[in-house]
Amino acid sequence: MIDNNKDYSNSPSAYHGKRHLSIGRRVYYFFSLPILKFFIQVLIRTYKVKVIRGSDVIEDLIRNKRTTAPCYWHEHSFVCLTLISKWLKKGFKGGFIVSPSVDGEVPAKIARSWGAHVIRGSAVRTGASAMMGIHKIMKEGISIVTAADGPLGPKYEFKIGVALMAKIGSAPIIPISCASDRAWRLNRWDNFMIPKPFSKVVIAVGAPHYILKQCSLIELEEHRQQVQDEMNNLMREVKGFISND
After folding, report:
1. Residue ranges of the chain whose pLDDT lies below 50
2. How many CB atoms lie within 10 A of CB 200?
3. What is the C-alpha separation between 192 and 189, in angstroms, rounded?
4. Strands (E), 54-151
5. What is the DSSP string of 181-227?
6. By the 8 A CB rule, do 15 and 119 touch?
7. Backbone phi, psi, residue 101, to 5°
8. pLDDT at res. 211
9. What is the pTM for the complete model shown?
10. Which of 102, 54, 78, 52 is nearest to 208 (CA)?
């Protein structure tokens, strides 16, 4: 039984170093986290959200509680995580792999407040011990949610480690993309997008992509390329919808 409030830092997928928070950081997180969550909630309630593809996929994965591997580009993390937070309230059993550094403390706390499971480690590393840890968690019915090109890019490049995770966990990849008519962009590698207040936000969810356990490394690379293409096609679709709306 997985505990939402437990930090799975001791799993093989996690970083084994100790994370020390100074008193200053503890005080900062204590006061800033509620304020940050409040402003996020106020902001997202102003959005005009439209799901143009994949409503049936969303309903199916929430209703059937299958173990899946939802993926999106790092650029779209803000919108996609907001979407998945709503799934969690409807019974979706999701897990987020959060950086094991102290910088991951705030995202980890926010994820837990949504009712998500938190695994401290990396989804893009392909080491055997890391995959064993993630596989164990997925066998317990937890769907692992990942930014497929994160945490450092290159942008829009689907990482082989995410494909391997889906293969080992027998979890279909669920590609997600989004676009907004007005957004702030952070000046960093992923061009991180935060839709402005009262923006139109368009979301598309692709069909589940299955990777058989017995597929070879060559076939795994083919799957990785296929999902990368699927995610980029979804991105073009939502951007086209925004442009033509």
Report:
1. 1-2, 4-18, 126
2. 16
3. 8
4. 69-72, 94-98, 117-120, 143-147
5. SSEEE-SSTT--EEEPTT-EEEEEEPPPB---TT--HHHHHHHHHHH
6. no
7. -75, 170
8. 95
9. 0.84
10. 54
